[in-house]
Design a protein that fits this description.
Helix content: 25-40%
Shape: globular
Structural class: alpha/beta
Distance between the termini: 42 Å
Length: about 475
């Protein structure tokens, strides 16, 4: 059967649709024909869609929804109206069933279905369920009993039981279904998964809703074989898409060991999201030897009490220890902060900034206001304890709604300015200082840096751009802005 897969994500810098590519590989392995409409590269989607569908018959259409909004407290832009328009246009040119999936969809499937009008959706793994739909459609058999499906029938939504499959069953990833080379040149990096799911108890996080609350591991040889294929395309900068690369640590060590065994560490420049604790010196050493250049640690806070309220199971000392281990091994460090959750105070913010400065981190990303996703522990607490006074953007959590503790809301930005001063390591959204803009969507400083040759994690690109611009010119010649 001929299947169309649509990527509606048009943010810049462009991010390759990894989930869509994995689903496409699954369909190909089952014998189906796959054509991908990548709207990221289309200036006029309303013209690209009919051009793609006219003259081609499709039995099934899959659309990947990676993000429902820009996750920015300052802008609060929802992408769902745009996705709805894309689905409406597709309907005019194809009668095939449209099935949505992706991380963004899996967080709030019923809401996304209601807004976009798709026929069905897949929560969690899409490789096997969408292939199952294609198999059934080819036989003209009913497919509505398949696991992981969300359906809207007779005015009601229905979720089928969720089934998780061993990731060892995912077919080899060729990484050729989308133009990964172009994504690399214009987006600065490629993505890869080493696992799915997250067992952590962070009160705000939607990853367990989208990917499951238990960790499922990909075989290290499969992961590294995929890295080798990316390198073969000239793609040398890669970022893991796992919730926490170092959970569990033994699997992370196996990945690093396999990269080293295959001799890829000298060519590969990779970045990861990690949990600050436990994070061993052994792992830091192995990550560096296998080509890791930077780690983004989800620290969230430097205050013991706030870490507990956020559901984190590490403390300030582990944050400092992680930074030391990375410094000793030449790995750049980024700490991500999440300020403004219930219980935040001026004192906890001050302790957090003080710890960040003590850590010696290369960059600290400051997010003010916590995105409230439906179904998370934070959303349930806000409703249970009636904390609606702290909500910014309304009370419908399917929209970009944030929580900001009322006790700090009037002064938090002034306090941060006073505490941080002109320290360039701190990144946060400020329209008056675009060089410190922490919202990657439509970040022109970032887009320009990638165009000029920078590659890697976005925070690390911004770090290097600033460092280069801070170097005094030699002999009256301005410094170059290229880098790797």
């Amino acid at each position: 059967m001929r299947v169309a897969l649509v990527n509606p994500n048009r943010i810049k810098p462009p991010i390759s649709p990894l989930g869509l590519e994995y689903v496409g590989e699954g369909l190909l392995a089952a014998g189906h024909e796959v054509n991908i409409l990548d709207l990221c590269w289309e200036e006029q989607p309303e013209k690209a869609i009919p051009a793609f569908f006219n003259g081609q018959e499709y039995g099934l259409i899959g659309i990947s929804i990676r993000n429902t909004d820009d996750c920015s407290f300052a802008t609060r832009e929802s992408f769902l109206p745009g996705f709805s328009s894309i689905v409406e246009t597709i309907r005019k040119h194809s009668g095939a069933p449209i099935v949505a999936g992706g991380v963004g969809f899996s967080v709030m499937p019923e809401a996304v279905m209601a807004i976009t009008g798709v026929d069905a959706g897949v929560v969690g793994d899409g490789e096997f369920t969408l292939t199952g739909i294609a198999d059934r459609c080819q036989r003209q058999a009913s497919w509505e009993d398949l696991p992981n499906l969300v359906l809207h029938r007779n005015g009601f939504f229905r979720r089928n039981p969720v089934s998780t499959v061993s990731l060892s069953r995912i077919p080899p990833m060729s990484r050729t279904l989308v133009d990964n080379r172009r994504y690399y040149l214009e987006g600065g990096q490629a993505g890869i998964e080493t696992k799915r799911g997250c067992p952590m108890g962070c009160v705000y996080c939607a990853d367990p809703l989208a990917k499951g609350s238990s960790t499922r591991l990909r075989p290290p040889k499969d992961v590294v074989a995929e890295l080798g294929r990316l390198l073969g395309q000239g793609i040398e900068h890669v970022h893991t898409c796992d919730s926490e690369f170092n959970v569990p640590e033994d699997h992370a060590l196996e990945i690093c060991g396999e990269i080293i065994r295959r001799g890829l560490g000298d060519r590969l420049h990779w970045y990861a999201y990690c949990k600050p604790g436990p994070f061993s010196r052994e792992l830091a050493g192995q990550m560096r030897r296998s080509g890791c250049r930077g780690i983004n640690f989800g620290a969230d806070s430097g205050d013991e009490g706030m870490l507990g309220r956020l559901g984190r199971d590490f403390g300030p000392e582990e944050i400092l220890s992680a930074a030391r281990s990375c410094r000793e091994n030449g790995i750049a460090v980024m700490f991500d902060l999440l300020l403004g959750a219930p219980g935040e105070t001026k004192e906890s913010i001050a302790r957090t900034v003080e710890l960040m400065m003590e850590s010696g981190a290369d960059r600290i990303g400051v997010t003010v206001g916590v995105r409230v996703y439906p179904g998370t522990r934070l959303a349930m607490r806000i409703q249970r304890e009636d904390l609606r006074n702290g909500l910014v953007g309304g009370s419908d959590f399917t929209l970009p709604v944030f929580f900001l503790e009322t006790g700090i809301a009037p002064t938090v930005f002034d306090q941060l300015d006073a505490l941080v001063g002109k320290d360039p390591r701190f990144l946060f959204f400020d329209p008056d200082r675009p060089e410190r803009n922490y919202n990657y969507n439509a970040n022109q400083v970032l887009v320009r840096a990638i165009r000029e040759g920078h590659r890697g994690a976005y925070w690390d690109i911004l770090r290097r751009v600033h460092d280069e611009q801070s170097v005094p010119p030699e002999n009256g010649v301005e410094s170059s802005s290229t880098g790797t």
